[in-house]
TrEMBL record:
The lineage of its organism: Eukaryota, Metazoa, Ecdysozoa, Arthropoda, Crustacea. PANTHER family: CUTICULAR PROTEIN 50CB-RELATED, STRUCTURAL CONTITUENT OF CUTICLE. Residues 1-16 form the signal peptide. The keyword DNA repair does not apply. InterPro entries: CHIT_BIND_RR_consensus (IPR031311), Insect_cuticle (IPR000618), Insect_Cuticle_Struc_Prot (IPR051217). Keywords: Cuticle, Signal. This is Cuticle protein. It comes from the Eukaryota.
């Protein structure tokens, strides 16, 4: 029995030694990098029904990206952001046009007949 176990162990070591794991290992391929390309785009949305009103424009020369966007805020103002991104980072200039307008606050009033103090009852048995 011991000779059989030794023989099986020898075959297992031989089989493991002949296994070529490197053939099945995933191969790493460096990602392809491309030089930055010049581009420009812009769009505008004005939809009165959904109260959407915004635009965005951007352009790049391959090294510097500049652009701006504008959005109508719920308080009636317009936010305008002008930005620039280059080797020194991202910088933005944020401005607001218009004046914020809020609806007049009216405290809720409840008629005396609709509000009652809750009645509590307790039942205890000892």
């Amino acid at each position: 029995m011991n000779k059989l176990l030794i023989l099986v162990a020898v075959f297992a070591v031989a089989a493991a030694d002949s296994y070529k794991a490197a053939e099945y290992a995933p191969k790493y391929e460096a990602p392809v990098t491309y030089a930055p390309q010049p581009y420009s785009f812009g769009y505008e949305v004005q939809d009165k029904e959904s109260y959407n009103d915004f635009d965005h424009a951007e352009k790049a020369d391959g090294k510097v990206v500049t652009g701006s966007y504008r959005v109508a805020l719920p308080d009636g103002r317009t936010q305008i952001v002008t930005y620039k991104a280059d080797e020194n980072g991202y910088t933005a200039d944020v401005k607001f046009e218009g004046e914020a307008k809020y609806a007049e606050y009216k405290a809720a009033s409840y008629p005396a007949s609709t509000y009652t103090t809750p009645a509590y009852t307790t039942t205890a048995e000892y």
